[in-house]
Amino acid sequence: MPRHENTIRAGALTLLCFTQMSGAMVSRLTGISERRLRKLKATAFERGFDPKVDARIYERYVEDSPCPGRQKIITAEQEKQVIDSVTADCIGCEKSAEVLGFEAGISIISILRILKDNGFTSKKPTCKPGLTDAAKQ
User: Fold this and answer.
1) Nearest of 87, 63, 55 to residue 7 by alpha carbon
2) Sign of the Cα pseudo-torsion (8, 10, 11, 15, in order)
3) How confident is the model at residue 126 (pLDDT cuts 50, 70, 90)?
4) pLDDT digits (tens, 9 = 90+) for 4-24
5) Residues 6 or more apart from 86 whose CB is under 8 A from it?
6) Comparing C-alpha atoms, which of 7, 5, 3 is closest to residue 57?
7) Is 55:65 a contact under the CB 8 Å cutoff?
8) Distance in angstroms (rounded) separating the CA atoms of residues 46 and 85
9) Would you say the pTM of this structure is higher than 0.70?
10) What does R_g of the chain's alpha carbons equal in angstroms?
11) Shortest CA distance to 86 belongs to which of 128, 124, 114?
C-alpha cells in the first residue's frame, strides 16, 4: 500500500465530506483506493473531525498512526560506551566482540551491529619485521 502525503489525504477527506463526489471519483482524482478512503474518513471521525461543528481539517485527523515495531534495546549510552572502548587506545581495537559485549553488558551480535553501523571493520593487527642489515644498505 503506497503512503500518501497528509495534504493529499486532507484533500480527499474534503472531497468526501463537502462535495457530492463518489468514492470512486475521489479515488481516481487522488490515487487513494476506495477502501483506504473509507478508512481515512472513519479514522478522521474517530479523532474528532465533525464537519457540522468545525469544517477545518487538522493534520491530526489525517496523519499516520504510529507504527508498531521492535523496541530499541541498546541505549545511546551503551553504544557510546562500546565506541569509546574501541577508540580509547590501540588495545581497544584488538578486543573481540565477546569482550566488548561483556564490558557493555550486551550480546555479541549487538556489538557487531553497533560496530558495523559506525563504520568499523575487522582488521588483523600487523607487525612488520624490522629491516635487516642487507636491506638497510
Assistant:
1) 63
2) positive
3) confident
4) 899 999 999 999 999 989 999
5) 92, 93, 95, 100, 115, 120
6) 7
7) no
8) 50
9) no
10) 29
11) 114
First CA to last CA distance, the chain: 72
Q: What residue spans define the domains of the chain?
A: 6-62, 76-117
Q: What is the rounded CA–CA span in Å between residue 94 and residue 109?
A: 17
For the chain, helix (H) and strand (E) counts, in that order, are: 8, 0
Q: Which three cell numbers stand for residue 107?
A: 550480546
- With b for 16 or more beta-carbon neighbours within 10 A and e for fewer, the 11-39 pattern comes to bbbebbbeeeeebeebbeebebeeebbee
- C-beta separation of 28 from 13 below 8 A: no
Output the CA torsion 44→47→51→52 (10° steps): 150
Dist CA 36 CA 89 (whole Å): 56
In 1-137 the beta strands, taken as DSSP E runs, fall at none
Q: Can you tell me which residue has the cell 573481540? A: 96
C-alpha cell at 135: 636491506
Q: Which grid cell is 53?
A: 461543528
Place of cell 563504520: 119
Indicate the length of the chain as a whole number.
137
